[in-house]
Amino acid sequence: MYTHSKQVVRDGAPIEEAKKAIVMLHGRGGSAEDIISLKRVLNINDMAIYAPKASNNSWYPYSFMAPANQNQPALDSALDIVDQVVRDIEADGISAENIYFAGFSQGACLTLEYTTRNAKRYGGIIAFTGGLIGEQVAEENYSGDFAGTPVFIATGDPDPHVPVSRVKESIAILERMNAFVTFAIYPGRQHTISSQEIQLANKNVLDA
C-alpha cells in the first residue's frame, strides 16, 4: 500500500494573471502531462492549470468499486492531495466559484469523490468516464451544496471499468446536492475521450 507525495505540474495562465484555475486529474497509468494535453481542445486558455501526480501513476490500487479498505491509505491520501491543491489555489487568490475540475477515468472518479465530499459552488466539474467511489455509494460521506455548479459526466456503454449504473447513481446524488448535471452515454464507445465529449464539456461547463 502507498500514499502520495505532493507533486504538482503547473501550466496554463500564470496564477498572478489568471482569474480562474482548473485542477486536472489523470487516469490510472497516465500522467499529469497527459491530462494537461487536453488544454489543446478544452476552453481553458485563461485558466491556471494544476495537475497533481499520483504515486505509481495510480490514485488507488484497485477498482473504484472495490471495498474501501482495499484502496487505503492511497485513496484518502489522494483526496488530501486534491484538497491541498485547492487550498493552494484559494491562497493564490482564486475563490471556489472560479475553480474548475477535470478528470479522466480514475481521475474522473477522484474528481467526483472530492467535489461531492466538499460540495460548494465551483466553477464547473468535468468527469470523462467516472463515478463516485466505493463498493456501494456511501452518501454519509457527502455534504454541502453545489448551488448550481455545472457538471458534465460522460461514459461508454458498456465501459470496462465504470458501470453505467454507477454513473447514473452518481448523477442522482449530485443532482440532489443541487449540481446542474448534463451527461452523455455512448453505446459501444471505447475507454477514451471523444471529440463530442470535448465539445459538450466546453459548451456545458467551460463556456456556461
Automatic annotation (TrEMBL):
Record has ATP-binding as a keyword: no
InterPro entries, per database record: AB_hydrolase_fold (IPR029058), LYPA1-2/EST-like (IPR050565), PLipase/COase/thioEstase (IPR003140)
One Pfam short name: Abhydrolase_2
Keywords, ordered alphabetically: Hydrolase
Keyword Hydrolase (UniProt): yes
Coiled coil: none
Residues in Phospholipase/carboxylesterase/thioesterase domain copies: 14-203
Identification of the protein by name: Dienelactone hydrolase family protein
Family label: Belongs to the AB hydrolase superfamily. AB hydrolase 2 family.
SUPFAM superfamilies (alphabetical): alpha/beta-Hydrolases (SSF53474)
GO molecular function list: hydrolase activity
Organism this protein belongs to: Dyadobacter chenwenxiniae
